[in-house]
Amino acid sequence: MCVVNNFIANFAKEKPFSYTSMKTVDRIIAEKLLKIRAIILQPANPFTWASGWNSPIYTDNRKTLSYPEIRSFIKVELCRMILENFGRPDAIAGVATGAIAQGALVSDTLALPYAYIRATPKDHGLENLIEGNLLPGQKVVVVEDLISTGKSSLKAVEAVRAAGCEVIGMAAIFTYGFPIAEKHFKEAHVPLVTLSNYNAMLEAAVESNYISSDDVNALKEWRKDPENWTPSQTII
Fold it and tell me: What is the C-alpha to C-alpha distance for residues 201 and 214, in angstroms, rounded to an integer?
């Protein structure tokens, strides 16, 4: 805890933030993501994910990198969350591509070695899957920007473990909170902590009048069965 307190105190000297609001971090992060349209909600005109799923929500947390204050806020909260939940790791690993920058920011702030994990090995040169050096025996925290089903995130964990490292946990900015993701992380024995989540985002969206009560119903129905959801499923 001393390490966490020292980190927060040192950071506050350089980048002062106001914590006067009684809102929780998950709500604050959700509001910021909605404000810059890193999260977009369109229940009546859903997006199509690469998986083929219809989705009333689209999330691109890379947009936070364009906003220095939000970028720094997320960085310090990720660092705090990692230290509080996992202690000080030996290294940080970011998941390509969305968490490459976030992982680098975290590792730089904590003065830790850093590497990032590709989705697939390069098709040229050394054909690396891991870019950077992770040493066997190191305790590693994996940083991710978004958790959906957890499959792609856990592939990164497998790569880090294959390099002889111990993955002591994963820290992410946002999760949809799918039950299947919880199942995957439990089976992989990977503790997961996130700064914000789907429920906090819905609360923030309703409070700001971004969405109506009918939209909330559609968004809740989607999360129950995202693979088979269509807009017509929601009864208005």
Answer: 16
